[in-house]
Amino acid sequence: NQSEDKLIEYMDELEFLAFTAGATVAKRFTQRLTQPDSKTFVGKGKMEEIRDYAKEHNIGTVIFDDELSPSQLKNLEREMEVKILDRTNLILDIFAQRAQTSYARTQVELAQYQYLLPRLTRMWTHLERQKGGIGMRGPGETEIETDRRIIRDRITLLKDKLKIIDKQMGTQRQNRGKTVRTALVGYTNVGKSTLMNALSKSEVFAENKLFATLDTTVRKVVIGNLPFLLTDTVGFIRKLPTQLVESFKSTLDEVREADLLIHVVDISHESFEDHINSVNEILQEIDAHRKPMIMVFNKIDDFSYEKKDEDDLTPGSNKNISLDEWKKTWMAKSKFPTVFISALTKENFPEMKKLIYDEVLRIHISRFPYND
Ligand code: GDP
After folding, report:
1. Would you state the pLDDT for residue 365?
2. What's the CA angle centered on 111, arms 156 and 64, to 5 degrees?
3. How far separated are the first and last CA of the chain, in Å rounded?
4. How far is ligand 1, taken at its centre, from the CA of residue 11, in Å?
5. Which CATH number fits domain 178-367: 2.120.10.80, 3.40.50.300, 2.70.210.12, 3.10.20.30?
6. Which of the two residues, 180 and 303, has the higher pLDDT score?
7. Alpha-carbon distance 66 to 59, whole Å?
8. Does residue 241 line the site of ligand 1, with CB under 6 A?
9. What is the pLDDT of residues 110-120, one digit of tens each?
10. Taking residues 130-147, what's their average pLDDT?
């Protein structure tokens, strides 16, 4: 059952996100609804089931795989009496943990405040109820208003700070002159940093967790005497919080201003087709979808399959697919130049380098028209 598989994959990803944030998952709950309950996201019965389980097993946090509305969050927290996290909050938390430079920290802080602002009331409605509501509403409201104002001021301040840095970074990008700029894009954890290291011989942090890279690194790479710039960008993910897309503007500007995108795909992941779609959607969102692109299908060393017919590679237990076999799959028939590699074992690197070289050279020549 395909939608059943999807559900499991989504929950796997959520669990991986939770693991990255430092949590251990005790149990998963799923529910099939035509649309989420407007008050509690899940239905009443399911909510009680989760609440009872959490109580019985001393669970401190319940995580939902979607962005909850402010009122859903408030209702769930009141009914369940545990900490409620939604997907956005979880991703923001991971970003906050991983932000290394003051620039990344500023971006994450801004996104966090933007997330918090419409959700501020929930802390106060508890209080108002305890105090009996009427009569206490005045001071309660004032406090919320004060808090809201403080947060709004902080948001303005952070935006100003980012504007200044964005401007500096924009100037930096301009100063790179006419050198061809390429950017690695792809879903999170597909091997972008590993590939960056392999191509530029530098040491970029690579780890089997989500979002190891928050800050962009730009490296100069030379293939066959042709120098160009290579940027590693933040990994994309399904349902990337919109607050983050906005505040990571400058990081994404590297992608927007690149001459060539190198789209890395983790072919060993069962949802790699969904990942390609998510990446393409975000590229569209930031208006970078019309750029020249190379598709790099990575981790061929880790792909196992069941052979059913000539062109079909169904996931299974066999390993060692020959490059010739890869080139017969639908992936090879993409409208973009395509290559199959392993960034780990460096298998088929010469072919990938040749492909990148050809594309970079084409752009380089178009920029320096020696012939006219
Ligand atoms: P990024 O988030 O896209 O930058 O991904 P990373 O470069 O941090 O890699 C994520 C994980 O995948 C790390 O554990 C890498 O060691 C692993 N990895 C990267 N490339 C390959 C590959 O070609 N084969 C295998 N088996 N693992 C890889």
Report:
1. 87
2. 145
3. 60
4. 21
5. 3.40.50.300
6. 180
7. 20
8. no
9. 988 998 888 87
10. 57
**Which tokens hold the place of 216?**
């962009």
Q: Is the CB of 296 under 6 A from ligand 1?
A: no
Distance of CA 82 to the CA centre of its chain: 27
pLDDT band at 152 (very low <50, low <70, confident <90, very high): very high
Q: Which atom of ligand 1 is nearest to the CA of 188?
A: 2
d(CA 167, CA 76): 42
Please identify which residue in the block is written with the tokens 């989504």: 10
194 lines ligand 1 (CB under 6 A): yes
Task: Name the strands in the sheet holding 226-232, side by side, starting at the edge strand that comes first in the sequence.
Answer: 217-223, 226-232, 181-186, 260-266, 293-298, 338-340
**Which pLDDT tens digit goes with each residue over 200-230?**
875 555 555 555 455 667 788 888 888 888 9
63 confidence band (pLDDT: 50, 70, 90):
very high
DSSP letter (8 states) at residue 187: B
- The C-alpha atoms of residue 25 and residue 95 are separated, in whole angstroms, by 20
Q: Write the CB contacts of 190 (distance below 8 Å, at least 6 apart in sequence).
A: 235, 264, 265, 266, 269, 275, 298, 299
| Residue 325 three-state SS | helix
Task: Kindly state the average pLDDT of the residues 282-290.
Answer: 88
- CB 271 near ligand 1, within 6 Å: no
Domain spanning 2-95: CATH 3.10.450.50: no
Tokens representing 143 are 């406090």
Nearest CA-CA partner of 218 in 246, 184, 244, 267: 184
Q: Say if residue 246's pLDDT is above 60.
A: yes
* CA–CA dist 228, 176 (Å, integer): 10
**Percent share of the chain, pLDDT over 70:** 81
Sketch the domain layout of the chain as residue ranges: 2-95, 99-160, 178-367
Q: What share of the chain is helix, strand, coil (3-state, %, to 5)?
A: 50, 15, 35
Paired tokens of 154: 């902080």
Query: Does the Cβ of 17 fall within 6 Å of ligand 1?
Result: no
Other beta carbons less than 10 A from residue 202's beta carbon: 15
Q: Read off the amino acid at residue 292.
A: P
The residue length of the chain stands at 372
